[in-house]
Amino acid sequence: MDLTATTTDLANAAAEAVRLLPGRTLDPVLAGLLLTTTDDGVVLAGSDRERAIRLSCSAAVHTPGRVLVPAKPFAETLRALDVPMVRIAVEGARLAVRTPNARFALPLLDADLHPGVPTAPPLAGSVDGDLFVAALTTVAATASRDEALPLFTGVRVRADGDRLVLAATDRYRMAVASLPWTPVAADLDALIPATLLAEVARQARGQVALHVDDNRVGLAWDNSVVTTALLDGSFLSESKLVLSAVDTTVELDADALLAAVRRVALYADSRGVLKIEVGDNEIRLRTADQQAGEAEETLKADVSDGRTSPSFQSRFLIDALKPFSGGRVRLAIQPGMRATVFSSPNAEEVMDLRYMVAPMRPPAT
């Protein structure tokens, strides 16, 4: 193999590959990056037999070839370079990264031992990348990090006619987003690891295509394709969350509420809990702790119906308000320990987002 590429393009592709590949494998072959030349340049690929990635980068190919190199050292070397062009060439048992005044040589791994990268499953449809990223940024963050409960570490992605619905929960909160999409196949209902989707949200751009079969799901954008095995098990359906018990509705500026929560939370107890007291045309945030002290702040709000006053863990409340920044937010409050639903009162929003947070016991006063 011998090729010349734009340093920035190749460095970005290698860095993206490293971020998308699982980083916990101890097998050096599975932790390697497979470089294969094509008519248009070079393909960077990797797989741990569960997740697989494939990225393309334009390059001038002098000698075709296929090599396997340690992924992270290769990406870090390219990122450290400050020259416009870089040459990549096999020299004996090493892959040389050359610039006009420097040479870095990486050991070659046995490419024949690599399992290869499977092709993506059949196309299910496509979605606008900006909307998809916005939805994933919120929804994937609500999934559990507890690997002992794999069911809750995924995001359910399903097609509902011309809408794509994403849902995730860690049992204490749940986010559901619905956005327009262009279906190709009617059948899409997949539980996808949230960690992968969170990384996709940092990298995807343009149109994002979704591919799916009975065992795998794939996402493709620009010159990038990532596939992974689906999580097992059924998933809680957001349609089961009936809000017939709502007795209090509050609407106000999301940024004002978010800022107030952050200030009052400085005085919260070890649980970080604060109470939202609902009054006539206002709400009051209140918390107290014997060690930290006490705080309260009042905000103007449109209040209708009852006067249920729930308490929340402040960090969950902050996460629930962030997606509505720049506009108004509506709180549909249910009595007792039923969840409160945060949503936008603007019916013209392209993406419909609902964020549900379970209440906590109120802080001691």
Automatic annotation (TrEMBL):
Q: What's a GO biological-process term for it?
A: DNA strand elongation involved in DNA replication
> One Pfam family, short name please?
DNA_pol3_beta_3
**Residue intervals of the DNA polymerase III beta sliding clamp N-terminal domain:** 1-115
What SUPFAM superfamilies does its record include?
DNA clamp
Q: What is its main location?
A: cytoplasm
Molecular function terms from GO: 3'-5' exonuclease activity; DNA binding; DNA-directed DNA polymerase activity
* Keyword line: Cytoplasm, DNA replication, DNA-binding, DNA-directed DNA polymerase, Nucleotidyltransferase, Transferase
Q: Does the keyword Cytoplasm apply?
A: yes
Chain ranges of the DNA polymerase III beta sliding clamp C-terminal domain: 247-352
Q: Where does it localize? A: Cytoplasm
Q: Which GO terms describe its cellular component?
A: cytoplasm; DNA polymerase III complex
Report whether Acyltransferase shows up as a keyword of the record: no
Q: The DNA polymerase III beta sliding clamp central domain covers which part of the protein?
A: 127-235
Q: Which Gene3D superfamilies match?
A: DNA Polymerase III, subunit A, domain 2
What family is reported? Answer: Belongs to the beta sliding clamp family.
Q: What is this protein called?
A: DNA polymerase-3 subunit beta
Naturally occurring in which organism (per UniProt): Kibdelosporangium aridum
